[in-house]
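Bug #2210: token dump truncated for Response regulator receiver domain-containing protein?
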Amino acid sequence: MSTRLKILIIDDEENMRHMLSVMLHKYGYSAELAEDGGAALKLLSEHSYNFIICDIIMPGMDGLSFLRQAVVSGVTTPIIMMAAYGTKEIADRCMKEGAVDFICKPFKHHDLINKLLKISGAE
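Reproduced locally. Full output below:
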């Protein structure tokens, strides 16, 4: 990957944020981390990103609240939502709210990378 694409990772679990950051770095992406939707909105007001990967269930501002607020605020960055207990209904709801994709945790690294490549048109 010639240009490092910048990804905002939003998850309340420090281990998940770290794992995603390390994995994405191995594939040539750079990552910034936020522990909840409120922290993510602050980062979005200061920086731009190529993608956002956001957990749904978090204390404080949860993922769906973040997604709604981001859409209302005019954020056009593609957002991939993720959840440990994902169902078709949850995935459909995320897509209706403005997410471009959904992935269930745990997932294989290549599944997430393939989603990023597909969304960016590099697949």
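Output looks complete on our side. The first helix runs from residue 14 to 26. Marking as cannot-reproduce; reopen if the truncation happens again.
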